Amino acid sequence: SGGSAAAPLPEEDCMKLNPSFLGIALSSLLAIDLWASKRLGVCAGEGSAWGSARPLMKVIEVSGHGIPWLLGTFYGLCQSDSSAAREVLLNLLFALLLDLVLVAAVKGLVKRRRPTHNKMDMFVTISVDKYSFPSGHATRAALVCRFVLHHLVLAVPLRVLVVLWALIVGISRVMLGRHNVTDVLFGLLLGYALYSVVEYCWLSPLSAPALFALW
């Protein structure tokens, strides 16, 4: 009848009509992230605003790639004749391997696709590299930066260059269109925190004699 009360909405419809504040905030953050990442992807293609700088950005991309760092560290470990240097290089190798495993695990768990404006012409990729979150280059850059600053004696200008390199690697990921801004920011934070794990698990002749016996 006309005087009867309207039937209540199902609970799931009420939830859709009254989204949580957290849901709105996350959706807004995601939208801002995608918009900013697209605007900052000025080297994503040859026809982009800064397309002429794309070759330089790709050189920076290679400088932060895992394979050159792994091969270089392993070569240095084989050539080193100092026990102190071997200890540092072995721990750097451990840090790089831990970084690869952790980033691959997070990428496989989150499964965030790369930006739509990205050209899939990256240097040596594997299956999980089709995913974007977090940026492995940014994670590695922050990890290596902290490691180098703590375990190598460098003049102040060189220390500044190491920090700038880490920041430029992170920025280049967005400029090339490889990652969104949040991928890089989380990657830098993850790499910074990962160094603390490496320090806590530091390998030495006392804690890992079998490893050092190989060298």
UniProtKB/TrEMBL annotation:
Its transmembrane ranges are 89-110, 147-172, 184-203
InterPro entries in the cross-refs: PAP2/HPO (IPR000326), PAP2/HPO_sf (IPR036938)
Q: Which UniProt keywords apply?
A: Endoplasmic reticulum, Hydrolase, Lipid metabolism, Membrane, Nucleus, Transmembrane, Transmembrane helix
- The EC code for this enzyme is 3.6.1.68
Q: Which domain of life is it from?
A: Eukaryota
Residues annotated as signal peptide: none
The record describes its membrane topology as: Multi-pass membrane protein
Tell me the compartments it is located in. Answer: Endoplasmic reticulum membrane; Nucleus inner membrane
Q: Which residue range or ranges hold the Phosphatidic acid phosphatase type 2/haloperoxidase domain?
A: 88-199
Coiled-coil regions, chain positions: none
Reactions mediated catalytically:
(2E)-geranyl phosphate + H2O = (2E)-geraniol + phosphate; (2E)-geranyl diphosphate + H2O = (2E)-geranyl phosphate + phosphate + H(+); (2E,6E)-farnesyl diphosphate + H2O = (2E,6E)-farnesyl phosphate + phosphate + H(+); (2E,6E,10E)-geranylgeranyl phosphate + H2O = (2E,6E,10E)-geranylgeraniol + phosphate
List the GO cellular component terms: endoplasmic reticulum membrane; nuclear inner membrane
Keyword RNA-binding listed:
no
Which class of enzymes does this protein belong to? Answer: hydrolase
* Single Gene Ontology MF annotation: sphingosine-1-phosphate phosphatase activity
PANTHER family on file: POLYISOPRENOID DIPHOSPHATE_PHOSPHATE PHOSPHOHYDROLASE PLPP6 (PTHR14969:SF18), SPHINGOSINE-1-PHOSPHATE PHOSPHOHYDROLASE (PTHR14969)
- Family statement: Belongs to the PA-phosphatase related phosphoesterase family.
- What this protein is called in its record is Polyisoprenoid diphosphate/phosphate phosphohydrolase PLPP6
User: What is the protein's species of origin?
Assistant: Scopus umbretta (Hammerkop)
